[in-house]
Design brief:
With 352 residues, the chain is α/β, with parallel strands linked by helices. The protein has one domain: TIM Barrel. It is 44% helix and 13% strand. A 7-stranded parallel β-sheet has the order 1-5-6-7-8-9-10. A 3-stranded antiparallel β-sheet has the order 2-3-4, with no helix packed on it. Strand 7, helix 12 and strand 8 form a beta-alpha-beta unit. Helix 7 packs across helix 8 and helix 15 packs parallel to helix 16. It is globular, with a radius of gyration of 20 Å. It starts with a helix and ends with a helix.
Length: 352
Amino acid sequence: MTSGELLLKTIRREVDRPIPFDIEFDTSATQHYRDRFGGDPYEYFRIGYRRVYVNDLAAGADTDYRKYYDALPAEAKIGVYGDAAIYAESEAVRHFYPMERFSTARQIEEYPFPDFTRERCWIGLRERVKSFHERGLVVIGTQAEILFPRAWHLRGMAEFLIDLALHRHMAEALLDKILAAQVPIVKGLTEAGVDVVWLGMDVAMQNTTMISPSMWAAWMKPRMKTMVDAAKSVNPNVIFAIHCCGAVGPLLPHLADIGVTIINPVQPEAVNLTQVKKDFGNVFTFWGGVSVQRTMPFGTPEQVRAEVPECARILGKGGGYVCAPAHGLTHDVPWENVVAFVEAASALADSG
């Protein structure tokens, strides 16, 4: 069984052993470790999938978004939706919001959104998917920042939360515009033949969700279901994965309702691994679980080697577990810990 076949069977909870593993690096870490693994970490570690993306830049509206800001620093990078940020080595450290001063729903409705129905967004994607499939790899179509994170990146966190609570017309206008822009993404990825549609919807903190589960169910759930249904109208068997850092537990029943299969990154500081496996082990495949707040950056190699099989013992019981760090690794993770993780995770993947 190839690594891709094992991964797909694990995602579908058709096998419980061996357990596949994944390891990702952020941009700075990939560059930092490049000499260690000679280029592409997916190739080096024989990971059973590859990611593909829509060409966001090709969808960009033909507008100068700077006009939506009073003063935008020259070093700020403007994204395809018009939101801007100044980046440090690994993450955006300062955000700027083009809709922050909007006061009417009409302003939102007239704002130029990217158009992902443009043919140029999809040039070559089907061929890339086919080439990965021919190598026996699972193909994951990825779209970060759907709905909630995309909304506050445009409106500003404070303003958007106020809209949800007090200015319903503003929140509805913004979320509906985002939905209309993003449905073609999930459909296009599915039409290109991906096995998994992977969506980023960070909406949780370390101990709780950013908005109440009931508010999430009222505002985000039906729109997310629209996205899932749109993709499944193309391929009923396409698999949905949700990336949500933090305490995602209260949202899991809702994600199960709309047909999500994979939950990532299963952050152990924010999610009770034993409890979520007990409650949802027959519904979800969990992908992650190994601490990136404690063990990977600050633990010893021996501690890493101990945590990997412990996560597998908890989350891998009965299948439905992909062993991985609970986020992409940053450049400050010691190489010895990377090696320790891979050695321990490889032992799971090699054991039948």
